[in-house]
Design brief:
Elements lengths: L4 E2 L9 H12 L16 H18 L6 E6 L2 H13 L5 E6 L2 H11 L3 E7 L21 E4 L1 E2 L4 E2 L11 E4 L16 E5 L10 E6 H4 L12 H6 L9 H16 L2 H22 L4 E3 L11 E6 L5 H10 L2 E2 L10 E4 L6 H16 L1
Parallel strand pairs: 1-13, 3-4, 3-5, 5-8, 8-9
Antiparallel strand pairs: 2-10, 6-7, 9-10, 11-12, 12-14
The chain binds pyridoxal-5'-phosphate.
Length: about 350
């Protein structure tokens, strides 16, 4: 089978061994005589898959099961934009939000309808071509929400700011498990699976147990993290297939040497592409010029002569490269090079960028 270079931002490339294993499970899982798509979520076969994925998620992240728990939810990361304030923003309290890009903005819009919020920092002045800095946290805030990787604009926060005591909530949808982070500084970490962790359909919510215990209980049960957690994340039918594939991705990450190794490779991969853009800065306009703000997952740029955009995409297609068109709201180009994207694909794009600039 032919695998092209898939630079899509999400749903996105998954490791081939994971796809091969998952395709077998679609026919039969664990000698059960049934497809994974057919077995009860209450069956022993599925339960083992479910609990193993929850345990391995904490293990790969370097978190202790005494302190943190994993809840699988539906509705995408976008549903979390509402579920978080529903659970943790009480009347009279304020939640801090960092406005680092379009996804952070969507989280802000949703929270505004549910309580009082403060924008602790914003990168709107640079149209999000830089990371927000100069945080102004609210003393005693209910929580502080930030997006670690701005998928659309191409910036990435690889450090965790001090919040002055407020519980930190991270939307890590587009750089989850892409490098080592001290997740124990956060009270909640969540990601839609379809960027770097699996197929669409499951949102991974890792919540500190002591934080979860402070959540509101006067909201519908289906939106309460604690209700899901109490049922081991099987309060209702979980998205069994995406969870299974997420479990395979976790094993694949461990087989690569864990987050440290994956992180090193991601850094090398992104560097190949940024170096090519910077070497031809008269021809390409890298969207993020501040090097320490640049995302290792989503690399964004423009061709200075916009008349050449179409030719660039056509040449990419001829080289078996797909998904390079930038987000519809910002235009230009974007190369998403998540964990499963191969290093030789980054080298191939770097080579193409150099050749196209010289034509
Ligand atoms: C894609 C994305 C989302 C939205 O994810 P859905 O699962 O489509 O709701 C939220 N935050 C970030 C950072 C994203 O990249």
């Amino acid at each position: 089978m032919k695998r092209i270079y898939n630079f899509s931002a999400g749903p996105a490339i998954l490791p081939l061994p994971v796809l091969e294993e998952a395709s077998k499970a679609v026919i039969e899982i664990a000698g059960s005589g049934m497809s994974l798509l057919e077995v009860s979520h209450r069956s022993k076969v599925y339960e083992a898959i479910h609990q193993e994925a929850r345990a391995n998620c904490l293990k790969v992240m370097g978190l202790k099961p005494e302190d943190y728990t994993v809840v699988f939810m539906g509705g995408g990361a976008s549903q979390q934009f509402a579920t978080i304030p529903m659970n943790f923003l009480r009347p009279g309290a304020t939640a801090d939000y960092v406005d680092g890009g379009e996804w952070g903005n969507k989280a802000i819009k949703e929270a505004k309808g549910l309580g009082a919020i403060n924008i602790a920092a914003s990168s709107a002045a640079t149209k999000h071509a830089t990371l927000p800095r100069d945080f102004k946290w609210t003393p005693g805030a209910a929580y502080a929400h930030l997006t670690t990787n701005n998928t659309i604009e191409g910036t990435q926060m690889r450090f965790m700011p001090e919040t002055g005591g407020a519980p930190l909530i991270l939307d890590v949808s587009s750089d989850f498990l892409s490098h080592r982070m001290d997740f124990s500084k956060a009270s909640m970490i969540y990601a839609g699976a379809q960027k770097n962790a699996g197929p669409a359909g499951v949102t991974i919510c890792v919540v500190k147990k002591s934080f979860m215990a402070t959540a509101k209980t006067d909201i519908p049960a289906i939106f309460q993290y604690a209700v899901h957690d109490k049922a081991d994340s099987m309060y209702n039918t979980p998205p069994v297939f995406p969870i299974y594939v997420f479990g395979l991705v976790l094993k694949w990450i461990e087989a690569q040497g864990g987050l440290d190794e994956v992180g090193k490779r991601n850094q090398r991969k992104a560097q190949l592409i940024y170096d090519a853009l910077d070497a031809h800065a008269d021809f390409y306009d890298a969207a993020v010029t501040n090097k320490e703000d640049r995302s290792q997952m989503n690399i964004t740029w423009r061709v200075r002569d916009v008349a050449k955009e179409e030719a660039f995409l056509k040449g990419a297609k001829d080289r078996q490269m797909d998904g390079l068109k930038g987000h519809r709201n910002v235009g230009g180009f974007r190369a998403s090079v998540y964990n499963a994207f191969p290093e030789e694909g980054c080298a191939a794009l770097a080579q193409y960028l150099k050749e196209f600039a010289k034509q």
